[in-house]
Protein: Adenosylmethionine-8-amino-7-oxononanoate aminotransferase
Organism: Telmatospirillum siberiense
Amino acid sequence: MSDSILDLDRRHVWHPFTQEQTAPPPMVAVAAKGASLFTEDGRELTDLVSSWWVNLHGHAHPVIAAAVAEQAARLEQVIFADFTHAPAARLAARLAALLPGDLDRVFYSDNGSTAVEVALKVALQYFGNRGEDGRRRLLAFEGGYHGDTVGAMSVGRSSGYFRAWEGLLFPVEMAPYPVTWIGDAAIAEKEAVALAALEAALGDDVAAVIIEPLIQGASGMRMCRPEFLRGVAERVRKAGALLVFDEVMTGFGRTGAPFACIKAGVTPDMVCLSKGLTGGFLPMGATVVREPIHQAFLGESVRQAFLHGHSYTANPLGCAAGLASLDLLLGDDCRARIAAIEAIHLERLGALAKGGKIRHPRVTGTIAALDLGEGDYASSLGGKVRKAFLDRGFLLRPLGPVVYFLPPYCIEPAELHRAWDTLETAIGG
Ligand SMILES: *Cc1c(COP(=O)(O)O)cnc(C)c1O
């Protein structure tokens, strides 16, 4: 038996979101730099999906790598009950300063799903602590995706990935989500319908409403307008429920602004962060909560405290990576790169849309998306486009018939243009 990486993998590794019987063997990544991934068989691939939306500044960025290495040699991990440490405290302070209003209290966890679980659990206990035990219902939006743990699956049920566990999920009402795109004439009407439905679903028994602001990622890069989010915020506030923005994907510059809530002009009650939080270096999540919510957990009894935690809560390496990544994100160079990516997306997608081969062109910040046609996740057209990109040295992962570019901010303009050229050729546009 061979001990090649592929053979060991084939015998012992189970991959996520993969039908291993029919999928081609995985590519063996041996190194990465900037927007490029290097494989064992000598290929260089431009990462157009930021490795599942986590990478911000490019792979193996030397500044983040050095921060992690330095932290690893100093303090690699410490129990986060009874202890704190500089990277955790500093990162929390910087997130609080960046986020609007009194979103000032950071609860650390391990990934996006846990950041969502924490938000849901905090919402329910918050009302319990205040003696408002009647507020137990949760609302979410059709097509929303919030992660793969049971609570996150329950609020993301309609994304369509969870049929095998249907019976396990707790009931969550789904409000309509007004998807929009460039040149969508009917959007105001769709928003009015969605907001009316939300208003009807809200009531004094609702604890929280969760939404992916500006763009639903996993269900197909479905965008909405800031106007809609402001309408949602107004209604949720009026009903006395908490508004949770799941910014696991939209955070840290993805939509052009540091956070989607800033771009939308909304201060939610909680913000879930992960993915780009560490610049794509380490798994970490954070749930940022408005300070008055945190206050409701203070008291004489331990039962009033939030009895939730993870072994690696506030891992110092993740926090050090997060601090270094924020330094890069807030630099002028990064802001200019983000603006340049959006400008190229708008220019090239506009030209492609004129050709009539695509539907629903849409852009928010560094994310561009379009529909090739109708279909579900198994859509073969998306698979063909993916193959065409691979042949030309690009990693692309269409979501069924939805093609999207979500590159690291360091991608060179010429390389991004080459990606758009490749798409034009692939669809004959
Ligand atoms: C990816 C994602 C999650 C889940 O994050 P994991 O780190 O994969 O658990 C939750 N919400 C949104 C919006 C996401 O894109």
Observations:
- The longest strand covers residues 103-109.
- Residues 111-113, 116, 145-147, 212, 217-218, 246, 248-249, 274 surround pyridoxal-5'-phosphate (CB under 6 Å).
